[in-house]
Structures are given as structure tokens and as C-alpha cells.
Write a structure and sequence with these properties.
heterodimer; A: mainly alpha; 3 helices; 74% helix; flat; B: alpha/beta; Rossmann fold; 2 domains; 6-stranded mixed sheet; 5-stranded antiparallel sheet; 18 helices; 14 strands
Chain lengths: 72, 690
């Protein structure tokens, strides 16, 4: 994916996330991380295991944040 | 990635090692990066470009493999007919080491990649691939470090599956054209999607979905641990296993649907090439659009209706409101009467009190005589009776709460007078109208194909019957899929309910449970956002490729005045649109250019920086177009390595016309002593070392 096209996808995703208050903790950086992680694993032949595992790690951070904020 | 040097050791016809290894340099003094390598047929052109592929991926396809082929050349063999990678003369001389080293620049650093083979220890004469041992290294020449995950590093630069778009044989250009036309072969289409990284989009959504499923399973486990309600646990587990089963069936249905769609694509493609078939498809498309429009309208109306009032309530609302209001009014009336009666009792009680005490009458003011003993007893009894009645009325009057009754009455009167009911009636009418339009469009669609089959040649009839049959099957499977989805949705609701029952009963949820719930919601929201964003993105990418390819095609074609654009459908079917806005069949030469244009557009839009390596570039296009194509490619930003066959581009002409945009030009020549060996002769040079 060309840089501009990748940027375009990231921008679209950031916009979509901004529309949903439940995704307010998903920053542009996180979106980039998610897209890059999926992009990296595009040809992985492991039934998507490594891709899901990378996504898991990224989302776990956000979940911790939401959980901590919920406790306050 | 930009190639700087290719060095081959006993590689196919390039015999020689160490100082005698064959080299091609691509590093121009003034940034020139292109190379032209002239050679007659069977003089090692293909072997040379395959060296790049071998270095990258460790294997190369045999000559008989098509673009979609999977037949690999053996590492060793004693006969050239077997197309071994180790030079046959070297093999005969007992030399079993061969390989390729490439130097390249990538993201600002220089690297040296070496992939070579030698015989395994203990083997005297290797006869099979398994008797050879590979050495594979990649070193960063700027910092001297070796790359650890070598193949991953290479795949990050260019995945093997996409190499076909960057390294291709002009002789097989038409196979690439088919690659964009062949609706039958989903596998091939997947490659086109792959180079545009569309799998990122679909896989992303699937990854989120898988995560969501896993999380829901985890939540079920947490919920069943959290509360030991045995019945609910069993229900939950049953629901989970039923869900799994139904999801598996759904996947099967989807595969079945994809198979039918593939076949339908092939039938439609056939029909498109027949005049009458084309007309039929156009008619059908019109009716299909009408049906789709009706579907959209129906969906939108149903949404509005469900927003206005929930469905079940809507059906019975008017009657229910009337009955409820009537009941409320009776209640309010009863309470009013009771309040009134309480007032009367109060007056009577006051009167009795005055009589007992011999005071004046409250109503007329006349003085009352003191009652006798018997009268006094009667008055006291009446008083108690009235007090009891008052007390009872007080209880009844306040049940239900009069405030509540008034509020309900007000709310129901508002609903009764609300415009929403009128709106619903109007929506209902719209719904019926669109449903009838949909039915009509569907009937017309069927009629259109029946008309053709009546009076047309048998082949068209046969294909339209096939088409009808497939459409029927597709409709049936789609219905089954929808039913299955409804079942799954119902099961998911049950599952959520059981999770709720189990999860809510046991005090505070453990952190891990709570976090799983947070993550489930997060993943669901992210998946929705992802799907919405990628839909827009996919279309934008398709338009990009279409625009880029059109630009290149119109700049190369000598008939550009006849054409308007290249059109690429959602499924990447390709057509040339002429100035009359019609699909143009065009000549094979024009289609050759289309293939170049699309390959160029796809590689550009992919964002992958890798040299374009083209063997026999003029094989599928005429001289005039070859000149223009080379002119365009060699002056583009891409690094281009071309291997023209003698008649395609004469070395003197090529050097004269394109030498200045090349780092060097080379000539391949068969060794005079040994026909199994090719020599490389440097012709024009702008190389850095010179």
C-alpha cells in the first residue's frame, strides 16, 4: 500500500473513531499501530494468529486505560 | 528497493565463481538506475532475471509454468533440459557450488544479500535437491550487521506472491491481461487485490470478528464461574456450542454462495461477448438496479417505522390506547367521586359533632337541642360508621396514586393525538408501494432472460438458463444465509442474556471478567469503524488504479483519440471505454498496452518500491508501441531492467536512444567454446566505478 494510500486509510479510520464516543481513547497513533500491524501480517500463513496477537496487545493497553478510568 | 549489483556464481548458463563470477551493475554515476540487457533467445536473459527472484525467494518457476504456475526448477541436474539452477558444465566438472548475490539500497541503507547452495557433507555427487545445502545471509553494508529474520525482511520489501507484478515476461503479457479479465479464477483476482493490499482490509475486519468471538467465549467462561446457577450455565454452554455449529454452517453457505457467484461471473462474461447477451445483461442490470433501489427504500422505511414506534406496539396501539384511556378515566372519576363523598362525610361528621354538643347547625345556623341518651348513642354509632367510611375512602382514593393516573392520562392523550400514527400509516403505504415495485422489477428481470431464451441461438439460451439457474441458487443460498444469520443473532441474544444472568448475581465481577467485557465492546466498535472506513478506502483505491492506468494507456496508445478511458469494475474486470462510452473490443496490441498500463498502475498504487524487470518487452506489442512503452518506463521514477530480444530492440539503436537513462547496457553472448555458458559484455556505461 502506498504511503499516501495508507495515510488515507488511517485518516478515514481516525474519522470513524472520532464519530464514536466509545472509541475516544483510540488515538491516531493507535490507529496507525493497528493498520501497520495488520499490514505487516498481510501475507502471514498462520491463520491470522500473529495478526490477532498483535492486535490483542495493542487493544489490551486501551482496555487497561478504560478500566482504570472506570474505577475513578 | 533499488538494485545496485547482481553477481551470479555458476548460475544457470553463467558459469564462473570468485573473480570469474558474472556481474551486472546498476549503479549509475549520476543516479542512473536502469539497465538494458540485450540477448538472443536462449542466451540467458530469463536466467538472469530469475537470478533476482532466486536471491529473494530461493526458487524460480520452470519455463512451462504460467503466471499462476507452481512448477519449480531443480537445484541440480546433469541435463540442461531439466533446467537446473546449477550450471550444467560446472556440475559435469564436479563443481557443486552456485548462487546469487545482490546488492541493493533500501530505506537509505545498502545491503548485500547472498543465497547460495553447496552439496551437503558426506554427499559426493548431489543428484537431488535434498542433497544440497542452502546458505542465506543479508548484511547491512552501512553498519556491518547481519539481518536475523532474513526471509521476513525480504517479504517486507516484496512478498513473493506479488513478484509476478514486478518481474514479468512480455511473452506472457496476455496472461496478465487475462488476469484482469478472468472472472472464473478467484485465485488470480486475489493477487490483484493482494497487490493493492485489500486483504489488509478484509483480513482486518475478520481479525476483529475472530477476536470478538473469542472474547464472547471468554466472557461465557467468566460468567459461568461467577455464578454457579447450574441451569443457566448449562443453557449458556448449550447456546455456545449451538452458536459454534451455526457459525460453521454459515461459513459453508458463504462458500457455496461464493462458488455460485464465481460461476455466474463466468456466464455473464460469456454473455457480455454476445450482442444479444449483452443487451440482456444491460436490461437485467437496469431491473436489478430497480430492485436494489426498492430494497434500499424498503430498508430505509422499515428503519423509520421502527424508530417511530416499535412494531408490535404499532399494530395494536390505537385500540390499546383507547381502552387504557377509558380505564384511566373511570379510575379518575371514581377517585373524584370518593373525594366528593369524603367532603360530604366531613360535613355530616361536623353536623353530628354539633348535635352532640348542642351547638348551632353548620348549614342553617339554627340552634340544636341536646340529644337524649338514646339519640346520643345513635349519633355516636353514625359518627363511627362515617369515620370508618371516610378512612376506607381515603385508602381507595389514593390507590393508584392520583398523580400517576393524571400523568398517564396526559401521556396517553399525547400519544393518541400524536402525528406519529399518521406518519406510520403513510410509511406503511410507502412500504407497500416499494414492495410492489420490487416484485415488478424481479418479474421483469426474469422475463428479460425468458425473452432471450425463446428465440435465440441455443448457446445463448443455454447460458441464460444457466444464469437463471445460478441466480435461483444464489437467491436460495442468500435466503439460507439470512435465516442462519437470524438464528445466530437470536442465539447471541440468548448468550448475552445467560451471561447477564450469571454475571450479575455474584457480587463484584473480577477484573479479568470486567476487562473482557470492555474489550468485547471495544472490538465491536472498532470493527464497525474499520468496516465503514475500509469501504470508502477500497473504492478510492480502485479509482486510483483506474485513473493511473488510463493516464498511462492514453499516453502510450496510438489510438488514444478513439478511447476515453480504461474502466475497472469493483471485481477488477477490465474494459476499454471508447469515445461513444461503449466497451471497445480493441486489437491484441492495444490489449498488450492495457496490460502494461495496469501493471504499471498497480505497482505504482501498491506503494511497493521494487524494480520492474521485463523480459522480452515487445513480444505482445508492435514496434511503435514498444518504443513508446520503453520511452515511458525508462523515463519514469521506477528502476527498470529490460531484456529485449534481438529483433525487439537492436543494441546500437537501444544504446543510442536509451543509453543516457541507463546505468549501463549489456549484451549476452553465447560462449564460443561451450554452448551451456553465457558471457556478459558491457556495452554503454554510466557506472559509478567508471
Amino acid at each position: 500500500m502506498s504511503k499516501s494510500s495508507l495515510d488515507n486509510l488511517i485518516e478515514l479510520l481516525v474519522n470513524e473513531c472520532a464519530k464514536n464516543p466509545d472509541l475516544s481513547l483510540i488515538s491516531e497513533e493507535t490507529v496507525k499501530e493497528i493498520v501497520n500491524s495488520l499490514e505487516k501480517e498481510i501475507f502471514a500463513e498462520d491463520n491470522r494468529k500473529s495478526s490477532i496477537s498483535s492486535l490483542d496487545k495493542i487493544l489490551d493497553r486501551i482496555v487497561d486505560q478504560i478500566y482504570e478510568e472506570g474505577k475513578k | 528497493m533499488r538494485l545496485l549489483e547482481i553477481e551470479m556464481t555458476n548460475w544457470q548458463p553463467y558459469k564462473g565463481a570468485g573473480k570469474n563470477a558474472h556481474k551486472i551493475s546498476l549503479d549509475g554515476n549520476n543516479g542512473e538506475k536502469n539497465v538494458i540487457i540485450y540477448g538472443q533467445n536462449a542466451h540467458g536473459k530469463t536466467a538472469l532475471w530469475q537470478a533476482i527472484r532466486f536471491a529473494m525467494f530461493g526458487r524460480v518457476l520452470t519455463r512451462i509454468s504460467g503466471v499462476n504456475g507452481k512448477s519449480w526448477k531443480p537445484l541440480v541436474a546433469s541435463d540442461t533440459k531439466d533446467e537446473p539452477l546449477l550450471n550444467v558444465t560446472a556440475y559435469d566438472e564436479g563443481i557443486y557450488d552456485f548462487g546469487v548475490t545482490i546488492k541493493f539500497e533500501h530505506n537509505g541503507d545498502e545491503y548485500e544479500l547472498n543465497r547460495s547452495y553447496s552439496k551437503r557433507s558426506g554427499i559426493s555427487i548431489p543428484r537431488r535437491d535434498s542433497q544440497m545445502e542452502e546458505t542465506f545471509t543479508i548484511r547491512n553494508l552501512d553498519n556491518g550487521r547481519y539481518i536475523q529474520e532474513k526471509q521476513k525482511f525480504v517479504n517486507d520489501i516484496l512478498p513473493e506472491g506479488l513478484a509476478r507484478f514486478f518481474m514479468f515476461d512480455g511473452e506472457r503479457l496476455m496472461e496478465y491481461r487475462n488476469l484482469f479479465n478472468d472472472t472464473k479464477d478467484v485465485h488470480l483476482r486475489n493477487y490483484i487485490e493482494a497487490i493493492l493490499r485489500f486483504p489488509v482490509l478484509t483480513q482486518g475486519s475478520e481479525d476483529f470478528e475472530k477476536m470478538g468471538r473469542t472474547l464472547k467465549g471468554q466472557i461465557s467462561k467468566h460468567a459461568s464461574k461467577h455464578n454457579k446457577g447450574q441451569a443457566a450455565i448449562e443453557d449458556l454452554l448449550d447456546t455456545e456450542s449451538e452458536l459454534e455449529l451455526q457459525n460453521d454452517i454459515l461459513i459453508d453457505f458463504k462458500e457455496e454462495l461464493s462458488g455460485y457467484n464465481k460461476n455466474l461471473g463466468a456466464v455473464n462474461e460469456w454473455l457480455k461477448n454476445e450482442e444479444e447477451g449483452k443487451r440482456l445483461l444491460e436490461q437485467q442490470e437496469g431491473f436489478k438496479n430497480q430492485e436494489n433501489q426498492a430494497n434500499e427504500e424498503i430498508e430505509s422505511i422499515e428503519k423509520n417505522m421502527s424508530k417511530a414506534l416499535p412494531g408490535a406496539w404499532r399494530a395494536i396501539i390505537s385500540n390499546k390506547i383507547e381502552i387504557r384511556l377509558e380505564r384511566l378515566e373511570k379510575e379518575i372519576h371514581r377517585q373524584k367521586q370518593q373525594t366528593q363523598r369524603q367532603g360530604e362525610i366531613k360535613i355530616e361528621l361536623g353536623h353530628l359533632e354539633n348535635r352532640l354538643k348542642g351547638k348551632d347547625c353548620l348549614a342553617c345556623g339554627t340552634s340544636l337541642s341536646k340529644p337524649s341518651r338514646i339519640e346520643e348513642t345513635q349519633i355516636l354509632e353514625d359518627k363511627v360508621e362515617l369515620q370508618n367510611e371516610h378512612e376506607l375512602l381515603e385508602k381507595e382514593r389514593l390507590d393508584p396514586d392520583p398523580d400517576y393516573l393524571y400523568k398517564r392520562q396526559k401521556a396517553l392523550t399525547t400519544v393518541k393525538n400524536d402525528m406519529k400514527l399518521d406518519m406510520l400509516i403513510s410509511l406503511e403505504e410507502d412500504l407497500l408501494r416499494w414492495k410492489s415495485k420490487k416484485r415488478e422489477a424481479k418479474q421483469n428481470f426474469d422475463k428479460a432472460s425468458k425473452n432471450v431464451s425463446k428465440d435465440r441461438a441455443s448457446k445463448i439460451a443455454e447460458n441464460t438458463v444457466k444464469q437463471r439457474d445460478l441466480l435461483k441458487k444464489i437467491g436460495a443460498v442468500e435466503e439460507r444465509i439470512q435465516t442462519k444469520k437470524d438464528i445466530i443473532q437470536g442465539l447471541e441474544i440468548d448468550r448475552d442474556r445467560y451471561q447477564g444472568i450469571l454475571g450479575s448475581g455474584g457480587g463484584k465481577k473480577p477484573t479479568v471478567y470486567r476487562k473482557a467485557e470492555i474489550k468485547r465492546d471495544l472490538v465491536k466498535n472498532l470493527q464497525d469503524a474499520w468496516d465503514a472506513a475500509t469501504e470508502i478506502h477500497r473504492e478510492a483505491q480502485r479509482q486510483n488504479v483506474e485513473r493511473e492506468a488510463t493516464k498511462v494507456f492514453l499516453s502510450l496508445s496510438n489510438k488514444s483519440h478513439l478511447y476515453k478511458k480504461l474502466s475497472i469494475s469493483e471485481t477488477f474486470q477490465l474494459s476499454i471505454i471508447n469515445n461513444q462510452d461503449k466497451n471497445d473490443s480493441a486489437s491484441p496490441g492495444q490489449w498488450g498496452l492495457v496490460a502494461y498500463s495496469i501493471l504499471d498502475a498497480l505497482t505504482t498504487c501498491s506503494g511497493i518500491t521494487f524494480p520492474l524487470v521485463i523480459d522480452t518487452p515487445g513480444r505482445s506489442i508492435d514496434d511503435e508501441h514498444l518504443d513508446k512503452t520503453l520511452e515511458y518506463l525508462l523515463n519514469s521514477k521506477k528502476q527498470v531492467i529490460v531484456f529485449p530480444e534481438g529483433s525487439e530492440l537492436k543494441p546500437d539503436d537501444g544504446d543510442k536512444r536509451f543509453g543516457h537513462v541507463c546505468a549501463a547496457t549489456y549484451q549476452l553472448s553465447q560462449n564460443k567454446v561451450d554452448a551451456n555458458i553465457t558471457d556478459i559484455i558491457l556495452r554503454k556505461t554510466n557506472l559509478r566505478s567508471n
